[in-house]
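Handout, page 2. Input:
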Amino acid sequence: MLYDINLRITYTYEVPVSGGRHVVRVLPVSLPDRQRLVAGTVTCTPTPEERRDSGDFFGNPSTSILFRKQHEKLVIRMQARVQLEPQPLTADFSPDLAAFPAEIGDVWSLDPDSPHHFLGASPRLPEDTAIASYARAIAKPGMTIRQIATAICDRIHKDFTYDAKATTVDTTPREAFKLKRGVCQDFTHVMITALRSLGIPAGYVSGFLRTIPPPGKERLEGADAMHAWVRFWCGATTGWMELDPTNNIAAGLDHIVVGHGRDYSDVAPVIGVLKSYGSHKTEQAVDVIPLQ
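Output:
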């Protein structure tokens, strides 16, 4: 599957900004046998005085930009062409929960994909007793790791209501769990916390999701969105798998990966600091266009 992706993020400042430094992570990543970045660019208006394109620890493309001159608006644009490969259906070779600690212990690597990075608490995901109890009630004896993750994904999808006004980007998993409402970031954070509480390595996936308009309706430009879902480790034989608790599906040809991390803080589209005061307004528009 081939896609053209266009992203525009606009920051409009109440008071002109006299300086700023940001890290931008919006360019899709190339992944062996899964996804290939054919071509891609990230541009900024105004043009930054300094810019450096690199990759972070987890291999996610990142662009560091520095502004010294005063500006009232910042526009970040990303254009990319990405090719996705269908993933084969496989039998469930993941171990059960009782045998899993030994399998994790056999992994000596600390490479970015090592399950050890995704077992404990992370900057935005502390341990939570309520979510842990929720996970233990779902995980039945004899279930495999893959079955447990699928069951938790299904349960979160049923128990939670998608509500874009209920939470903010800073809402904690505990708050979202109490509300049983939120957006894809909240669903993903709760599911990761639940899996880790059982000793299952789990991480955050940031990316794009192609949306399909209702029958008879035209596709609206800019109506697609950045999205988040969960990756979890199923053992040495199967490796990493991905589930989307917002939609209760496995990540497939409509899920385009921008980056992997422990939680949102590792893959936030834009982070940084400003020299200014007052408020600002943010607008985001995404187009995910299938070419075949």
